[in-house]
Amino acid sequence: MITTSHDRLLIIDFGSQVTQLIARRLRELNVYCEIHPFQKVTDGFLADFAPKAVILSGGPASVLDAGSPRVPERVFELGVPVLGICYGQQVMMQQLGGRVERGHGTAEFGRAYVSPTEARIDLLNGWFLEGREQVWMSHGDHVAEIAPGFAVYGTSPNAPFAITADLERRFYAVQFHPEVHHTPNGRTLYENFVRDAGFTGDWTMGAYREEAIRKIREQVGNAKVICGLSGGVDSSVAAVLIHEAIGDQLTCVFVDHGLLRQDEAEEVVTMFRDHYNMPLIHADERALFLGELEGVSDPETKRKTIGRLFIDVFQKHSEAVGGAKFLAQGTLYPDVIESVSFSGGPSVTIKSHHNVGGLPEKMGLKLVEPLRELFKDEVRALGHELGLPASFIGRHPFPGPGLAIRCPGEITAEKLDILRKADAVYIDQIRRHGLYDEIWQAFVAILPVRTVGVMGDGRTYDFACALRAVTSVDGMTADYYPFSHEFLGETATRIINEVKGINRVTYDITSKPPGTIEWE
Ligand code: XMP
After folding, report:
1. Site to substitute for ligand 1 among 255, 353, 405, 470, most atoms within 8 A of C-beta
2. What's the gap in Å between 413 CA and the centre of ligand 1?
């Protein structure tokens, strides 16, 4: 379904790990684009989408293998510029009359240098300032013969056809990945490509906000909308945007399950009810959740219990809204992109994530998802545009099941209390040292083990805790944050001195994979 009136660029996905980065680079250039798997790009889809340009992504397959993906022929007949990247380049050459060969010693993985040929093209304006450009290659096969109409504009030692183009048809093909960080000047290439295709850069947050408001009004009419507010960035931005569109037709439901951080419930309620004047139901369900979680220590049972109760509570309180027809959710673009799977096998469930999944069917509600086209940093930019405080927009993500999954083993009121206090000290330390914005997420987990310590002249027998801090782009992979020993030592001392109940502090240095960010 096409939902924007902006100029559109279509990225056809052949399954590369870095396809999303192409979209990021284009969005940075204020170009609206969508990623669609190659199997979905039918003639009808193309007519509907009406792209102003097409990019063919990389991918893991070999064009020489039977049944490997192909570009829908219609793409080459649209009369719009096409850029093929890596697999996209090879499949384009193969289909347009060139030839691809297996690697045999010419595979290239990693840094390479491309040099220009004598002839110059606009695509490369601003490139080759130093006579050659660093690029990132990752290919086994290579193009052995370019297709009729194409000429060579850049070569590397192992890729004689690193950059080729058919200027008449405005078809471009590059062997390397201009979207990755290791092709430092790659943005220039995308910029030249989209300007040549006629994109004016009309995808701005201001324009997005106006269009989103218009669409929400169209979709909702006079009906009532409810929104589960978690206090996280996504649901907060969605709520403020929808409130701007339809005012008090929106009611937010904030469920306090007793697993929130220190002062969190007050902060969220004050901000939305008092500052934004939004109708807000503050459902204090601490006793219910903590009662049902008593004695539960298995992580999946915890998650499922919280998910089930959340739906019940949300349903109970939203009945007070009376006749809501829509449920608002802060779904983001990365949640919507369909991943390309060649095997078609089901993926393993590592953790049962819970948000308000299952509600729309159960309650017969339709969804309003005004952030479906945005990446996380775009949601933050929209929040900024909507006037949400910077401190709120930059908050670290917080999981739906809250502190329950940071408390391995049985959850007790005592442990939660200790955990909240330790977490507050840790976050305060991070802020004091000016590190908060460098870190994707930081928190304390309280361990289900007591250890012996000595404080003053006395013996202590208290809980141990683990500090976690990671850097990440999207939460899918993560690296532990390299705090200085000085910072860690100071933080441990503060936690042990200020939080009664903890006498030992450890730092979790596991990356994801093999670990996960949360402890459960
Ligand atoms: P993991 O632990 O899977 O976490 O590496 C990745 C990111 O997802 C967050 N997370 C959740 N978010 N509901 C959420 O809304 C959940 O059930 C949930 N579980 C984990 C986690 O905090 C991290 O940012």
Report:
1. 353
2. 22
Using the atom order of ligand 1, give the atom closest to the CA of residue 352.
Answer: 17
C-alpha 100/C-alpha 68 separation (Å) is 13
For the record, the structure tokens of 18 come out as: 């870095």
Which residues have C-beta within 8 Å of that of residue 83, sequence separation ≥ 6?
53, 54, 55, 56, 172, 173, 174, 193
Maximum C-alpha span of the chain: 86
Q: Is 179 a catalytic residue?
A: yes
CA atoms within 13 A on the CB side of 352: 14
Q: Is 177 a catalytic residue?
A: yes
Quick: pLDDT tens for 303-352: 999 999 998 998 888 888 888 999 998 888 877 766 565 544 445 666 67
Q: 266 vs 262, 339, 396, CA distance in Å?
A: 9, 39, 18
Beta strands 458-471 and 441-455, pairing class: antiparallel
Q: Within 10 A of 52 (CB to CB), how many other CB atoms are there?
A: 20
Residues in the chain: 520
CA of 86 to the centre of ligand 1 (A): 33
* 431: Cβ contacts below 8 Å, ≥ 6 apart: none
The tens digit of pLDDT for each residue in 508-518 reads 999 988 999 99
**Of the candidates 255, 251, 257, the residue with the CA atom closest to the CA atom of residue 227:** 251
pLDDT in tens, 139-179: 788 899 999 999 999 999 888 899 999 999 999 999 999 99
Other beta carbons within 10 Å of 361: 8
The per-residue DSSP string of 436-466 comes to: GGG-SEEEEEEEEEEEEEEETTEEEEEEEEE
Angle between helices 376-385 and 205-220 (to 10 degrees): 90
Residue 64 confidence (pLDDT): 94
**Cα angle for residues 99, 70, 6 (degrees, 5° grid):** 120
